[in-house]
Amino acid sequence: MKLILIIVCLLVSGHGAQQSAGPSDDVETLQGSWAFVSLEVEGSKLPDAMLSGSKIIIKGENFKSISAGITYEGKMKIDRNSTPKTLDLTFTEGPEKGRTSLGIYELDGETLKICLSLAGSTRPTEFASKPGSGFAFETLKREKQ
Predict the structure, then answer these.
(1) Which has the closest alpha carbon to 63: 116, 11, 15, 8?
(2) Rounded CA gap, 120 and 60, in Å?
(3) The CATH number of the domain where 12 resides is what?
(4) How many domains does the chain have?
(5) 84 preceded by cis ω (within 30°)?
(6) What is the rounded CA–CA span in Å between residue 83 and residue 140?
């Protein structure tokens, strides 16, 4: 259960960043609330019931992740010029406070895919979470306002 919450937090932190050379179009597009559609941690898909009500809210370069009654907050930095696009999530509040998670993201209309490192030391290079990889792969949909 703790691993699930860590993954959700990582996903939440991965939104609303700013590129070092200035804001990107993706920063603006990521703004708002995103609901979890699926979450896979080290090759194991979490049951849909565990994701119910879980979401990430992005405002500016700040994010807030809410899942299973636990809230994570932090700042995100993205690089949309990388292939794949990268994000660094730095947690400022919650159980992961002080940690940074490295990841990649893909934005396709109202769908956001994120793959993050659970340990924070190695950035994933593909959108996959295999047993023993140390990665979480999540798919989110924009919530209607």
Answers:
(1) 15
(2) 23
(3) 2.40.128
(4) 1
(5) yes
(6) 20
pLDDT (tens digit, 9 = 90+) per residue, 48-105?
888 999 999 999 999 999 987 899 999 999 999 999 999 999 999 999 999 999 999 9
Based on C-alpha coordinates, what's the Rg of the chain?
13
CA–CA dist 119, 123 (Å, integer): 10
Q: What is the pTM of this model?
A: 0.81
Paired sense of beta strands 111-117 and 135-142, if any: antiparallel
Helical residues (DSSP H) of the chain, grouped into ranges: 2-13, 25-30, 48-51
Domain range for 128 is 2-142
Phi–psi pair at 79, nearest 5 degrees:
-130, 100
Query: Which pair of tokens denotes residue 65?
Result: 């992740």
Band (13; pLDDT cuts 50, 70, 90): very low
Q: How far apart are CA 56 and CA 74, in angstroms?
A: 11
